[in-house]
Every structure is written in C-alpha cells, then in structure tokens.
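Ops channel
N.P.: pipeline sanity check, posting one input/output pair.
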C-alpha cells in the first residue's frame, strides 16, 4: 500500500485482526477541509462485527460534523453511541494557517507527535489520555493545543499495539512503511490493532 497524499499531509496505516475474526473494530479517518486537517483513530470495544459497527457509527458522526471542534465531536459521538458498547478514540485537528494542532484522547488510543526539528523544542510529545468510554461515561473534556511544523509526524495506535512502539520513533520514515513496521513488530496478536502515521508536509501553504 502506498503512502496517501492529501493537501498538507501524507499518511499511511496498517491494521490487523486477531485469529477467528473477520472484521476489525479499529478504524481511522483523515480529512482535509478548508479549515484544516482532521485525523481520528477509533477503537470499538470488543471484537468483530459488533465492534466494527459501533466504530463505524462514531466515524459517521465525525464525517457529518467535520467543522466542529474536537471536544464537540466527542460529545456528538457520545450522544449517538449511548446504549451501545461504545468506543475509545483519539482525535487531532491541524490548523495549517496558525501552525497549531489540537488533540484529545478518550480511552487508550495512544498518540505521539514526533518533531522533525528537535532543536526547536521537545523532540516528542505524548497525548494525555483521559479514562472513559465514548457512549458510556465521559471524563471532563479538555483538549491540548501545541505548535506543529512542516515535517512533524503524528502516530496513533490502538491498544492492540504495545506501548513500547513509541520508544524510538524516527523523524523521516515513510508513513506507510512506518505503520506497517510498527504493527508487525508491536501488535500483541490477541486484539484488533491499528497504526496510523500522518506527516504534516505543509504543501500548499
């Protein structure tokens, strides 16, 4: 699979399902609009078709509300998914004009931002995850805003991927190859796994 290019972004993804399952409940979403770039990784609780169904329901809400702030998107998903098994998810919105990224995580979808130019500050930022389940119980919602620059790379990984993947992330690996390598090396083999790698290219600025 080739790295996908959209305005301002290059990204790749890899996913896997555990033995005996035909569908993955771990899904991703990337969309570039006039306002900026929205990136999401969603993990439907459990496995198989039911997990995939609730994850798809969350993505439907996100597609319908692209221009909403990330906190509003989570609140809309929460209302839509009440009475279901729910999802955990992480969202990021990049505002290319301001050079800022807003991100938030509910549950255990890990997020890491690797900076292309570490001399300008911290080389790696980690998403603060807040406990809860979208559709069942939300924590107090608070997003984090941080600067983003050309060449910075965002990694999202669901809980089927061991957390040590973030230990030594390169700055310039091809996003698709990075996603495949991380999944191959760190997938735990017993759960759905998704790795999404997105590099902010600044093309079109």
């Amino acid at each position: 699979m080739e790295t996908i290019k959209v305005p301002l972004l290059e990204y790749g993804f890899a996913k896997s399902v555990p033995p005996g399952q035909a569908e993955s409940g771990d899904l991703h979403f990337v969309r570039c609009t006039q306002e900026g770039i929205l990136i999401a990784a969603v993990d439907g609780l459990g496995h198989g078709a039911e997990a995939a169904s609730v994850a798809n329901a969350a993505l439907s809400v996100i597609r319908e509300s692209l221009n909403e702030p990330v906190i509003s998107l989570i609140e809309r998903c929460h209302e839509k998914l009440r009475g279901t098994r729910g999802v955990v998810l992480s969202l990021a919105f990049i505002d290319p004009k301001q050079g800022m990224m807003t991100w938030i995580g509910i549950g255990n979808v890990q997020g890491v931002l690797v900076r292309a130019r570490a001399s300008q500050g911290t080389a790696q930022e980690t998403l603060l995850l807040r406990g809860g389940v979208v559709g069942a119980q939300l924590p107090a919602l608070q997003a984090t805003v941080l600067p983003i620059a050309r060449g910075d790379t965002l990694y999202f990984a669901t809980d089927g991927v061991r957390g040590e993947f973030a230990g030594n992330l390169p700055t310039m690996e091809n996003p698709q190859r990075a996603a495949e390598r991380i999944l191959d090396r760190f997938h735990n083999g017993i759960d759905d796994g998704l790795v999404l790698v997105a590099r902010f290219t600044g093309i079109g600025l």
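N.P.: looks fine end to end. The chain has one domain: 4-200.
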